[in-house]
Write a structure and sequence with these properties.
heterodimer, A: globular, B: about 325 residues, mainly alpha, Protein farnesyltransferase/geranylgeranyltransferase type-1 subunit alpha (chain B)
Chain lengths: ~350, ~325
């Protein structure tokens, strides 16, 4: 099983008819090709090493292609079949790949993929709800799977999954979930970590801000303080880092950017410089984005590169929803309205 | 991601499981890639075989010494496979294995895979099973001391968990002191400092000592985001929780400014300080002066010292103007 399995045989080579002035800098068709070819040749080793996150890999590829308006290059049916095979008949959760154990991370990815394909009716959604509900702990936090690791990432995954399934109401204890996330807010910088007392980290801030957005609780944030810390993440190169004194990275750029967007503070950083940084992380030969300029591309950073450009309003890309990291038209189709702040 | 030792493992001394007498009873279970046409992946022969046998062992639920050894081999090939880690724990429980050996094994695995979620999680479960965290401070210290890894999030998480669960706060400040003296910009270490003192209690004496400690560090490196954030965090712990709670800090920061320092963090601190006062003391005679200071500093930030975030600074100035124009009772 690899990504080429999902590529429809009818796909032709890269077309250049849509190419105009504005796409010159974004190597649009190379990225499309890169995602189509994901796992085909030279990255075989990496592909089998990343089996344990295959479901998320598909979500990253599907979402990036959809944002680029190229979703029809993949075969909807075989992807849905793959996702269905990964639902655990006992727990209801999804594994990343057949033969692996179900986990909250891949459960969200699976539900995101199915929402994109408008195919939630293909699975047992109630079983997914039961799985997620069963992982909430008395303090409101969530286990990632039945083995008991707690992390604010899992809180976000739980709430996002239930939101996409339209089952946030009346399933988990939302109040406690919010309370736990707020207990991870640091008094020094207004950011959030993985657990109470853990260092603020842009990826985890995205999870916590995202959870507050989905539960309509953004008023709990000290928006100006957190917003300041987040925009401090922008470095002279234009890229954003995830913590002070760390290197800039395309994925952190997404997490900071989406958090700022949710909080209505996107304009506090320099969009032009960030766009330049993201574009500098494209692999001009193979397509795809890397974490930073000159490194090897991967599918994970490719989604976050494309997603970041979409948030920045790059042309020829569909709008992405900052909270759920999915195309906005799908979120609209589902009738979901994650909270967003506007600058007072 | 490539593991160079993998190449060596492919050498002649490795005997495939299919040729081992003591594995003759097991039928390997290949990966089922589903009914769709598949471009076959060039797994190394060893990788393929180990995981084919691993799947077979998991499928028949065998929990034995040879199964344990097989997980060791599988995890050596791919330490991120959390299903294999889970099965390994099941075997350890079933065999009632010596968990001290497991800790020793993990010391080495963590040394080589210090940024892998699964290895740390496994470590935590083993420590819980043993109910003994005797080695956890040393382990995480080694991981953090490893060149370039002083901010390893996994190691810090594990350390905080061990400290909190087994009440190991006693010598932690000493450790943090050392890390900060080695790298004053180590945000993880400053965070740990706050974590420890929050537990021990921010008494007036502790607050005073911490403010002094932080100011001393800022004197050495003025443009240190972590130290300035920590300073604010400590000030917020004081009974009034105000940025002007400590006259020493006010004097210190204004002194830096007078001496010509224009670090964006210093200016940001002064802006917050004056803004807070301006909003709280609406009727004071110097209120207008305070507001004026904020506007001037914001202007300087936007045009000179922090141009990339100029929109943020113009927001701060505008926000204060709006707030001050509202009737004070709404605050």
């Amino acid at each position: 099983m690899d990504f080429t399995t999902f590529v429809k045989p009818s796909n032709g080579g890269a077309s250049s008819e849509n190419e105009n002035e504005t796409t010159k800098k974004l190597e649009f068709w190379k990225h499309v090709e890169y995602i189509e070819n994901h796992g085909k040749q030279e990255d075989d080793y990496e592909y089998c090493m990343t089996e344990f996150l295959r479901m998320s890999g598909i979500y990253w590829g599907v979402t990036a292609l959809d944002i680029m308006g190229q979703l029809d290059r993949l075969d909807r049916k075989s992807i849905i079949e793959f996702v269905k095979r990964c639902q655990c008949p006992n727990s209801g959760g999804f594994s990343p790949c057949e033969g692996h154990d179900p986990h909250m991370l891949y459960t969200l990815s699976a539900v995101q993929i199915l929402c994109t394909y408008d195919a939630l009716d293909e699975i047992d959604c109630e079983a997914v709800v039961r799985y997620v509900v069963g992982l909430q702990q008395p303090d409101g936090s969530f286990f990632g799977d039945k083995w008991g690791e707690v992390d604010t990432r899992f809180s976000f995954c739980a709430v996002a999954t239930l939101t996409l399934l339209q089952r946030l109401e009346g399933s988990i204890d939302v109040e406690k979930a919010v309370k736990f996330v707020m207990s991870c807010c640091n008094q020094t910088d207004g950011g959030f970590g993985s657990k109470p007392g853990a260092e603020s980290h842009a990826g985890l801030i995205y999870c916590c801000v995202g959870l507050l957005s989905l539960t309509q609780r953004l008023h709990l944030l000290d928006v100006d303080k957190l917003g300041w810390w987040l925009c401090e993440r922008q470095l002279p190169t234009g890229g954003l880092n995830g913590r002070p004194e760390k290197l800039p990275d395309v994925c952190y750029s997404w997490w900071v950017l989406s958090s700022l967007t949710i909080m209505g503070r996107l304009h506090w950083i320099s969009s032009e410089k960030l766009q330049q940084f993201i574009l500098s992380c494209q692999d001009l030969e193979t397509g795809g984005f890397s974490d930073r300029t000159g490194n090897m591309p991967d599918i994970f950073h490719t989604l976050f590169g494309i997603g970041g450009l979409s948030l920045l309003g790059h042309s020829n890309l569909k709008l992405i929803n900052p909270t759920l990291c999915m195309p906005q038209y799908i979120i609209d189709r589902l009738g979901i309205k994650p909270q967003r702040l506007t600058l007072a | 991601m490539g593991d160079s030792s993998d190449e060596e493992n492919l050498g002649t001394d490795w005997l495939p499981y299919s040729e081992r007498d003591d594995w003759a009873d097991v039928t390997p279970l290949p990966q089922d890639d589903g009914p769709n046409p598949v471009v076959s992946i060039a797994y190394s022969p060893k990788f393929r075989e180990v995981f084919d046998y691993m799947r077979a062992i998991i499928a028949k639920g065998e929990k034995s010494q040879r199964a344990l050894d097989l997980t060791t081999e599988a995890l050596n090939l791919n330490p991120a496979n959390y299903t294999v880690w889970q099965y390994r724990r099941d075997i350890l429980r079933e065999l009632d294995a010596d968990l001290q050996d497991e800790l020793d094994y993990l010391d080495e695995v963590i040394r080589q895979n210090a940024k892998n979620y699964q290895v740390w999680h496994h470590r935590r479960v083993i420590v819980q099973m043993m109910n003994c965290a005797q080695w956890e401070l040393e382990l995480t210290q080694n991981a953090l001391d490893n060149d370039g890894n002083a901010k390893n999030y996994h190691a810090w998480q594990h350390r905080q968990w061990a400290i909190r669960t087994f009440n190991l706060y006693d010598d932690e400040l000493e450790f943090v002191n050392r890390l900060i003296s080695e790298d004053q910009r180590n945000n993880s270490a400053w965070n740990q400092r706050f974590f420890v003192l929050k537990h021990l209690g921010f008494t007036p004496q502790v607050i005073e000592r911490e403010l002094l400690y932080t100011m001393n560090h800022i004197r050495v490196i003025k443009n240190n985001e972590s130290a300035w954030n920590y300073l604010v965090g400590v000030l917020r712990q004081s009974p009034r929780g105000q940025l002007n709670s400590s006259p020493e800090v006010v004097q210190f920061s204004e002194g830096l400014y007078s001496a010509g320092n224009r670090s964006p963090y210093l200016l940001a601190f002064l802006i917050d300080l004056y803004q807070e006062q301006a909003l709280q003391r609406r009727e004071a005679i110097d209120n207008n002066q305070l507001a004026q200071k904020v506007y001037t500093l914001c202007e300087d930030m936007a045009t000179k010292h922090d141009v990339i975030r100029r929109k943020y600074w113009s927001y701060v100035a505008e926000h204060l103007k709006t707030q001050l124009s509202k009737p004070s009772s709404t605050e």
